[in-house]
Amino acid sequence: MAGYTGKAPTTDPRTGFCEANSTFYSKRKPVPLPANQSLDVTTFISSRAHSGRIAFIEAATGRQLTFSDVWRAVDAVSTFLFEDYGIRKGHVVLLLTPNSIYFPIVCLAVMSLGAVITTTNPLNTSREIAKQIADSKPVLAFTIPQLVAKIAGSNLRVVILGPSASQSSPDSGNLRVVASIEEMMRREPSPTRVKERVGQDDTATLLYSSGTTGASKGVVSSHRNLIAMVQTVVNRFRLDEENSTFICTVPMFHIYGLVAFATGILASGSTVVILSKFELDEMLAAIQKYSATHLPLVPPILVALVNNYETIRKRYDLSSLQSVLSGGAPLSKEVIEGFVEKFPKVTILQGYGLTESTGIGASTDSLEESRRYGTAGLLSPSMEAKIVDPETGAALPVNRTGELWLRGPCIMKGYFSNEEATASTLDSDGWLRTGDLCYIDEDGFVFVVDRLKELIKYKGYQVPPAELEALLLTHPEIADAAVIPFPDKDVGQFPMAYVVRKAGSTVTQSGIMDFIAKQVAPYKRIRRVAFADSIPKNQSGKILRKDLIKLAVSKL
Fold first, then answer.
1. Domains held by the chain: number
2. What is the domain range of residue 532?
3. pLDDT tier for residue 8 given thresholds of 50, 70 and 90
4. In this protein, which residues make up the domain named AMP-dependent synthetase/ligase (predicted)?
5. Which of 291, 311, 433, 436 is the most buried if burial means most Cβ atoms within 10 Å?
6. Mean per-residue pLDDT over the chain, rounded
């Protein structure tokens, strides 16, 4: 990574800030990175010593894979891909599936060859998936029989994730279903196969950013990015020291799931229990059945645990649980304290990261840190940050709000086949412009104020939607809320709120507008309210503002 040295100059030990270059440096111990540059992430993970035995458990069937099963399968699948399908370094392979016990096997096998894995959301439409295929140009796809129809127009060779290739859909169109994953896993690895040399700087993954503020773009991450991420995850939880069992409900196709399960947790020797989709009762039953210790989740699930506590307590034994790991959006004081009150033995940890930073950025690593309410945590190990004034480009000191820039070993190589987007996001010194408005406080904690691109411009004033949403959620009759910019020819934009009322509430539009008006400057007032049954959010828990903006504008 250009510009990144991993060495911090003289910094304030409390803030991590260096006045000489206006840069914040992580206060956490740096992650060790392997010196061998000719190293792929699969080899790196498989060569790590650990004491774990069971790697993956499929919750629906109880099927288990030991670590030796996993590495035998990875070796067999990579041999099959290399010898039978000619998959080589630089080729792109598409993976379209819900969470599955096969997911990490495919990822690790593909990356071991120096080929590139690209994942997509199973809920995406055929049109959305076709767009990604046209952009990334995969040479092979892995999918389940139920999703074959979604890639029917692509003329791709397909491997079925399941026991038999004959399970293919009648809607398979031009596709050639060539094998099943189980057939590939039975292949005897070739002792004579010569692997191509894969280096840390080579591309490993091509994940598409969520596109909450614009078109989705392909994020190119290197083997070095993933190795640094694995080291960060393993060191953060000190998982080598204990037998840990994680529940996997977060989507594996997303950077959060890939970080937590397909690579990071595997490297620690922990056991991962995989649920194909999130369903609250199934998740709770799996925690009880497998004595799970760690539960990565997104904020809406954590809220559901708090709200349904009495029912949960009567039906499930969650005494094995040691920590919940929340990502996607900051947790409020009410949610944190509500959870601590009901689950006093479970530590809440939070994290902040982007697809562009391989899921790494900042984290809280203890309940004490999480109780600095609203924080995303301290900068992750080996991470550097700047807070930059969006108007002047000047780097700002402690407790000043600006755009968060990040630099470190987890920062992406760039956007796939999109030099313009790369140049506007990554500078020549390796700084990633996150698009998040943040400040870093006097103890080095990062606070995310809002998305820079989502700021509402009212008469030239900048209004952060998240600030108004936080106020709305303090109203006793409001269950959920989202604030968007509403176009207006006189003022440019003004804040509009979508509100979900609590059951039995009679709160009115004017009542909500008055509630906010008493608490904010005149330019921040909400000037339009619509009531909704729910607020649309992506699987990370982020509000899909662009969907609400489209809805609001359609009614003009």
1. 3
2. 458-554
3. low
4. 48-416
5. 436
6. 89
Lookup: tokens for 304: 């559901």
Task: Give me the CATH number covering residue 529.
Answer: 3.30.300.30
Provide the CA 455 distance to its chain's centre, in angstroms.
22
Q: Does residue 347 contact residue 322 with C-beta atoms inside 8 Å? A: yes
C-beta neighbour count of 58 within 10 angstroms: 17
Domain boundary among 221, 241, 267: 221
| Tokens 């009759």, located at residue | 477
The token duo for 486 is 């509403």
Helix (H) / strand (E) containing 369: helix 367-370
Residue 175 pLDDT exceeds 90: no
Whole-angstrom Cα distance, residue 285 to residue 244?
Answer: 17
- Coil/strand/helix, residue 542: coil
What are the phi and psi torsion angles at 365 (to 5°)?
-110, 10
Contact 118, 208 (CB under 8 A): yes
192 and 53 housed in the same domain: yes
**Residues 293 and 408 both lie in one domain:** yes
233 belongs to a structural domain: no
**From CA 239, how far away is CA 125, in angstroms rounded?**
38
- Report how far Cα 396 is from the mean position of its chain's Cα atoms: 28
Q: Which residues of 69-88 are buried (b: 16+ CB within 10 A; e: fewer)?
A: ebbbbbbbbbbbbbeebebe
Mark whether 325 and 472 lie in a shared domain: no
CA–CA–CA angle 48, 49, 52 (5° rounding)? 110
Kindly give, in sequence order, each residue whose CB lies less than 8 Å from that of residue 268, ignoring residues fewer than 6 positions away: 50, 52, 233, 234, 237, 239, 240, 244
Strands laid side by side in the 414-415 sheet = 176-180, 157-160, 140-143, 92-96, 116-119, 203-208, 218-222, 414-415
pLDDT band at 174 (very low <50, low <70, confident <90, very high): low
Residue 168, pLDDT score? 45
Determine what percent of the chain is predicted with pLDDT higher than 90.
Answer: 67
DSSP 297-366: E-HHHHHHHHHTHHHHHHH---TT--EEEEESSPPPHHHHHHHHHH-TTSEEEEEE--GGGTT-SEEE-S
pLDDT in tens, 255-275: 888 877 777 788 888 999 999
State which amino acid sits at residue 373: Y
Of 332, 330, 321, the C-alpha closest to 352 is 330
Distance between CA atoms of residues 111 and 95, nearest Å: 12
Q: What is the pLDDT of residue 212?
A: 45
